[in-house]
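In this section we walk through a basic example: taking a raw amino acid sequence and producing a predicted 3D structure, encoded as discrete structure tokens. The instruction is simple. Fold the sequence below.
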Amino acid sequence: MKRVSFQEFVKEVLKNAVYKKGKDSNCVVAIAPDLPGCLTQGDNHEEARENLIDAIELWITSSLRDGETLPTVNGCELITSRKPKTSQRILKQAAISVDDWSKA
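The resulting token sequence is shown next.
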């Protein structure tokens, strides 16, 4: 299984996206079948795709915030934690918050 960044994970979800012409209205419905309930619409394919990117990002963010496990998509798993950046790690070791450091 490949571990990927947030942006790469969104791209993987988009690879499986389904676009359908609306039945009762002149719109395009965009669905991310890998993420249950993640769908949106737009006036055309481009707008539906842009709206779907926003919907996917919101779906992932909400799921992570709620402590849910994300699905594996096309053999890819989202990296959900990383070591702090060097400057953040040094500041934590020195017990100085980023706010205090930036005020100095």
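Looking at the output, two observations stand out. The chain has a mean pLDDT of 86. The longest strand covers residues 18-21. In the next section we compare this with other chains.
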